[in-house]
Amino acid sequence: MAVGFRFRDFVPEETSDKGFDTLFKLFMQLVTITAGDVAEALSWLNELDKQYGLTDDEYGMGDFIEDLKKKGYLDENEQQLGELKITAKAEQLIRKSALEEIFGKLKRGTQGNHRTPHAGQGDELTTDLRDYQFGDTIEQIEMTESLRNAQLNHGLDGNYLLTEGDLEVRDTEHKTQTSTVLMIDISHSMILYGEDRITPAKKVAMALAELVKQKYPKDFLDIIVFGNDAWQIEVKDLPYLQVGPYHTNTVAGLELAMDLLRKRKTANKQIFMITDGKPTCLKEPGGYYKNSFGLDRKVVNKTLNLAAAARRLKIPITTFMIASDPYLQQFVREFTETNQGKAYYSSLKGLGGMIFEDYKRNRRKTL
Asked: What's this model's pTM, rounded to 2 decimal places?
């Protein structure tokens, strides 16, 4: 019996929600950018409709708004008639969309990108399959998938071969728990110079939160924001996060992060900090001490002292610096050396990938 495939033209099915789906994807992006302001998001969507003709006589913007209400994505404020707000269902979908956008397109890397003593030798099987690599055990090999690959690659012509390139193994994860604090800078510089840095930071935070919830439900993830002060926010608050007229009180952020981690009884603890600027602010008994001109010795020394304190507590700090100023990079290098953590000098593109890889790497070893 011959083995082969039959090909034909793909004809996509017509769906009645085609108009809604197109507008909905744009709306979810816009509502994230506008920090949950539905009216502003719909206003932008109307402008896009005028420019690109997203709607027609059969399905208009009014129909779309009504469908958002019917499907449970929008709710009307009873106190202020006509004011729309997104629902908990929409908030969850925004996080899932961020997860797909940030982490969903990442390809599985080979062992060795981040070397650890435990790579690929976890305690718990997952649903993920990957190519065989040197060091994998026989028990990990998925024979059904491997034999299928051999058949497709070499055929059944009497010279049947099963080579190393045909083998697939089932990946594993360790059962260790990890406590992570994600710090997000919401100082005014996060929207200065014509670049929106806060929206990508929010998306990364939402994606990481959804990843932890779905794949590592026993892990702890706390999210804090820091400007003049620092405070903890809930995952559900992320779509509404926006920059304020703040300076950068990195000390307050680190103090709060370390306080949260002290309460966690896990072997692995870590801090991720997304920032684009230097520390410029401290809170003192008499008020705020601020200096935005250069690197202030008083502020820098207190920040470095906390980096050293975190190192003594075995809490590594990974800094994602989304700025390219040489003197800021020099500060980050000193901060990282003091903590013995890591630093990335990143553009906004690829930020999610780096956080994803670091999160997986750190949760697989005792820090």
From this structure: 0.70
